[in-house]
Amino acid sequence: MAITLNGTTNVITPTTAINPTGSVLQVVTATNTTAKTIAGTSFVDTDLTCNITPSATSSKVLVHVSHFIEQDRFSGGDTLGCAIQLLRDSTVIKHAKGSGKYISVPEESSHIVWNGIETFFILDSPSSTSALTYKTQAKENHADQSTTLNGGSATEGISMIVLMEVAG
Fold first, then answer.
1. Domain ranges of the chain
2. Helix (H) or strand (E) holding 132
3. pLDDT tens by residue, 122-162
């Protein structure tokens, strides 16, 4: 470990060698167990949000999101799905891929139910030392389906977001 000795005060100060590139500098988490039902094919907030203030502009933020999802579709087709995106403040940093989670069943089924987890990681380079808010938004693929996030009647799970500041 490299150190610097201040000749005036005799204080030993560690240099960047103590936190080399790739070191985890801080970790913050947020969870949500309150069911949030979304309706419609436009993105809406899921109420899963977490804040972090990076210590250096060179830092990166590793984001891990895990969302519990329950979906129902009573009529109108043999598929259902939803899409989740991640935002840093108001900027989308992980776009929903195509239609997002999608499930298809035989057409003779009149009622589809799917319970699962959407999880992903993304390494963000915010170039900031200001407080940052990370949050998720979701939308349904069909207007006639029901999507519940963060725990519902069947999932009863915990949705979680973990932010790790990584030395750059």
1. 20-166
2. strand 132-140
3. 999 999 999 999 999 998 877 777 788 886 554 467 899 99
Query: Can you give the pTM of this predicted structure?
Result: 0.81
SS3 content of the chain, % helix, strand, coil (to 5): 0, 55, 40
**Residue 136, number of CB atoms within 10 A of its CB:** 27
Neighbours of 66 (CB within 10 A): 17
Distance CA 30, CA 22 (A): 23
Counting beta carbons within 10 angstroms of the beta carbon of residue 151, is it exposed (0 to 12), middle (13 to 18) or buried (19 or more)?
buried
3-class secondary structure, 16 = helix
DSSP 59-109: -EEEEEEEEEEEEEE-SS-SEEEEEEEEEETTEEEE---TT-EEEE--TT-
pLDDT tens readout for residues 3-27: 555 555 555 555 555 788 899 999 9
Q: How far apart are CA 135 and CA 88, in angstroms?
A: 7
Q: Which fold has domain 20-166?
A: Jelly Rolls (2.60.120)
Q: Count H helices, E strands: the chain?
A: 0, 13
